[in-house]
Amino acid sequence: MGGSSCRPGAHLVHLWPPHFAFSGHHPWNLGPHPGPALLVSLASEVQDLHLAQRKEMASGFSKGPSLGLLPDVPSLMETLSYSYCYVGIMTGPFFRYRTYLDWLEQPFPGAVPSLRPLLRRAWPAPLFGLLFLLSSHLFPLEAVREDAFYARPLPARLFYMVPVFFAFRMRFYVAWIAAECGCIAAGFGAYPVAAKARAGGGPTLQCPPPSSPEKAASLEYDYETIRNIDCYGTDFCVRVRDGMRYWNMTVQWWLAQYIYKSAPARSYVLRSAWTMLLSAYWHGLHPGYYLSFLTIPLCLAAEGRLESALRGRLSPGGQKAWDWVHWFLKMRAYDYMCMGFVLLSLGDTLRYWASVYFCVHVLAAVALGLGLALGGGGPSRRKTAPPAASLAPEKLREE
């Protein structure tokens, strides 16, 4: 954004470990946070600056400021201030050093709206919190670890993963909405709408800073850069791959930028497997993380092959029915994978999955085999989304 006047208190830091994460099995345990990702991202931004400077020296002339490029290499104190920045220190979201710098150098911070965007973002959080408390009380996770649970009939065991994943989603919705609201209250991550900012990455279009408070106040701003969860997209998108994009969005950008693109493979599915493996390691060493995350590539391959082989052959009505079935199976796949994510141990996870006959693994393997037999192509990261990207009316999407 440019400018030189710093937001009051913006350089204050907490004397806590950067991006402290709750630990243990507390119901509000939110797993890892993007603290380590900050320094990886900063190293990449510094490298981009050095490459741009070398090109500038080789060409013999100076170019204008490039989109997202740092003005200079941060000092040690600036690096520490970024790492320990109080905005997001508890639950994220991930943000680049460029985003942090734009916040500090916002020329007219008083013109950036915060109260109305904060209220618009915060309003569903109390409802989600109540739904979490209710669902976790009625369907406690600890029941799955008891022998009596496995005496229940198969339909009851299958159903139980649905409210467990529902409670899991509500918990994260509340935490991430609260984290976003913390950023919004500080005016952090605000860019003009014209900059078309992306979650995690920031602006995708060059947007000159306003030259006066009046011009700054006349601009329309958004906080897409620090948007970490799209609750509507998570619940109503059709495909497994799209569900990943709407969840922990700033960290998904980081994973795509620094892990997926550097994966030692060309296949979308293999690159996704590599990304999921490192994401599981980032979460911790519990086997349940690895079992869950490494089920995702199988689901991606299955849905990509079968969709490529069959959906295009259907009538518009048939495609609509396909999307509903696909959405239902996508949600059940995430229900199933969530059990490994919350049960954590190898024994508990495999015991539950075995009690439902590894149904998602079996179904995905069958779908993959059928897609291959029918000549379906593999999923591609650049492939455009199907016409029905979600199933709920657009008016239900939260602001």
UniProtKB/TrEMBL annotation:
Its main location: endoplasmic reticulum. It comes from Mustela putorius furo. This is Leukocyte receptor cluster member 4. GO terms for biological process: lipid modification; phosphatidylinositol biosynthetic process. One of its GO terms (cellular component) is mitochondria-associated endoplasmic reticulum membrane contact site. InterPro entries: LPLAT_7/PORCN-like, MBOAT_fam. The gene is MBOAT7. It holds the Pfam family MBOAT. It is found in: Endoplasmic reticulum membrane. Residues 377-399 are annotated as: Disordered. The keyword Transmembrane applies. It is a multi-pass membrane protein. The keyword DNA damage does not apply. Pathway: Phospholipid metabolism; Lipid metabolism; phospholipid metabolism. Belongs to the membrane-bound acyltransferase family. Coiled coil: none annotated. It catalyses: (5Z,8Z,11Z,14Z)-eicosatetraenoyl-CoA + 1-hexadecanoyl-sn-glycero-3-phosphocholine = 1-hexadecanoyl-2-(5Z,8Z,11Z,14Z-eicosatetraenoyl)-sn-glycero-3-phosphocholine + CoA; a 1-acyl-sn-glycero-3-phospho-(1D-myo-inositol) + an acyl-CoA = a 1,2-diacyl-sn-glycero-3-phospho-(1D-myo-inositol) + CoA; 1-octadecanoyl-sn-glycero-3-phospho-(1D-myo-inositol) + (5Z,8Z,11Z,14Z)-eicosatetraenoyl-CoA = 1-octadecanoyl-2-(5Z,8Z,11Z,14Z-eicosatetraenoyl)-sn-glycero-3-phospho-(1D-myo-inositol) + CoA; a 1-acyl-sn-glycero-3-phospho-(1D-myo-inositol) + (5Z,8Z,11Z,14Z)-eicosatetraenoyl-CoA = a 1-acyl-2-(5Z,8Z,11Z,14Z-eicosatetraenoyl)-sn-glycero-3-phospho-(1D-myo-inositol) + CoA. The chain crosses the membrane at residues 268-283, 352-374. It comes from the Eukaryota. GO terms for molecular function: lysophospholipid acyltransferase activity. Keywords: Acyltransferase, Endoplasmic reticulum, Membrane, Transferase, Transmembrane, Transmembrane helix.
